[in-house]
Amino acid sequence: MRGRPSEAGADSAARGSATLRDVAAVAGVSMSTVSNVARGRGNVREETRARVQDAIDELGYRPNLAARRLRSGRSQVLGLALPSVTVPYFREFADSVLREAQGHGMSVRITQTHGDVRRERGVCDDPYLRHVDGILLVPVALGPADMRALTVTKPLIVATASFAAGRVDSFDTDRFEAARTVVAHLVSGGRRRIAAVAPGGALPAESDGRYLGYVAGLRDAGLPVSRRRVVSTDTVTFAAGADAVRTLIGRAPETDAVFALGDALALGALRGLRDAGRTVPGDVAVVGFGNVAQAGYCAPTLTTVDPGREEMAHRAVSLLAERAQARTTGAVLPEPGPHTVGFRLVERESSGVASE
Amino acid sequence: MPVNEPEPSRGRPTVVRMRDVAAAVGVSVKTVSNVVNATGQVNEATVRAVRAAVEELGYRPNPLARGLNSRATDTVTLALPGLGYGYCAPLAAAVFDLAEAEGVSVVMEPTGGDRERELEVLRNRGGLSDGVLLMPTAITARDLGDPPSPGPAVLLGSRRVAGPFDSVVSRDTAAAEAAVRLLLDRGASRVALLGGERKEGGDSAAALRTEGYRRALAAAGRGSDPWPIVETARSSRRDGQVAIAQLLGGDTPFDAVLALEEPLAHGALHALRRAGRDVPGQVRVVAFGNDEDAEYSSPSLTTVRADVHTMARRALDLLTARVREGARPRSQVEVPLTITERESTFS
């Protein structure tokens, strides 16, 4: 027996936005019965179930997804905390994360930390990442002590950093090896006075595996490590790279290669060297880190390390989705830990042949 | 004032509350709240009756209330195609920073330029956020034609879509025209449009910008000697490089390039460098873009940049107003783009 759709129901149907109440009215049952049928739960007689389903179909009722998400805890929101979406490497990473998240039917709550260590430390309690089921953090300011002290109250994955702590999953490439490979490449090209431009602000350069790899690479080649040829920057920006090169030329004019730990720094360095009248690669070779899209199109094109950014985004989002899901289903997953992504050195014009 | 004058009447007008509106219409306070806050499901006739009563009684939401909707989430949804399109990344950055300065967090719903997803975002906003900022790349006026008391939303971007929403749009046609005029002022005589749309009458960002280019061409008296409009499948650097390399390999002369998206321009610069063409000496280049890449390329790139900060500011203000006072006249705000000249047009 079917009731005639109420006026409200008819309007709702016309709008395609029928409510639980409308369906209940049409089917002549309680709202909780409708809810049970819609979710395939509860003890509902077959005849009643059919009647309710008819009403659902007729009215075009679609359960309020968001309300369901919040109630059942099966929210499909991923929190992404990264320094900025305008720095090319992070923008490209965020774009990959968004696409991967979309593939999993997740929306993404993004917040820019601007490299503030307090925000990175407190990411699980971040007010701008409310109601997310898992967080993907791209840290630039966390030191080893911070990492150990991190409060982890929801699924947390760290990308582009290595965590030995073991309470979180982390995805990173072997930074040490990658840097060592860069130095070996420069040495094989005849460079001997290799400088490094290292971001990290307050953190000592040694907390970055890439810096340690740079040092190891120099030692492998029997070359001295000169602190004069290491310039620290606060941020990973073009301007910081250009400034660093100016500083470098001032205090270490004998430099014949620059390894910039970030493509934005390297692109800024290219410009800075040009403005200072140094040719690349003739006078000075330049290598970056990140393999952003611009690296293949700048002048000269930039040799850089591809740290597997796309693979990292893909695997990190998949794992986060799994961990978030497991929270509600109670599925058992492997313990969190570090995951390695492969790197490759992409050789382009900027580390080519030296002049003379 | 003379001492013996009577005091002016201190009668305070009676404050109209939500329950007064409810009583006048004969519905529950919750229903009035749903209409005023543009939340929940209320039938069309009731919405009209409530709005009429609101106007008639002079009901005004209390501006000091943080949000009349007790379910206020202090969240806005930002629905853009992605972060790699046009000025989406700097626009998103501006929205994040401005919203967070007011304690509002941002949920990104990447639409990928898909019509269904754009519609879903506009429809399906119950619970997760207070309002939506949408860049409409695929939906049309017809999709928005029959609004069932839509939730608060503001459209933003290049494309103008007629509908029951506030919008903040960039003035792309005028900007493209100005860019071509700049190129002509810098000595160009045949401007290739990279990433343009040959078919007239479209409403995408590319079509609007192409229209500006055509106007400049006509104004310069070149209607009968049309310049090359080069279409590209996408707007990547590679697309730009391949397109310009092809143009160089053919017999179509050009001495300037207006690239409608910045990555296309970087590809073009690369192709020109490889072909031994001097920029700006032999070929001048201008690009629509906001990125820092432009400042640090060699040569540095003259850009036509959207004022994303103003767009984000105005969109958030309109959205906040819409969330607070459901019934108000619709606004369309136009925001100009500005040209920053660098080495690629001037040595």
Automatic annotation (TrEMBL), chain A:
It comes from the Bacteria. SUPFAM superfamilies: lambda repressor-like DNA-binding domains, Periplasmic binding protein-like I. Signal peptide: none annotated. The keyword Transmembrane helix does not apply. Residues 18-72 form the HTH lacI-type domain. The keyword Transcription regulation applies. InterPro entries: HTH_LacI (IPR000843), LacI/GalR-like_sensor (IPR046335), Lambda_DNA-bd_dom_sf (IPR010982), Peripla_BP_I (IPR028082). GO terms for molecular function: DNA-binding transcription factor activity; transcription cis-regulatory region binding. Gene3D superfamilies: 3.40.50.2300, lambda repressor-like DNA-binding domains. This is LacI family transcriptional regulator.
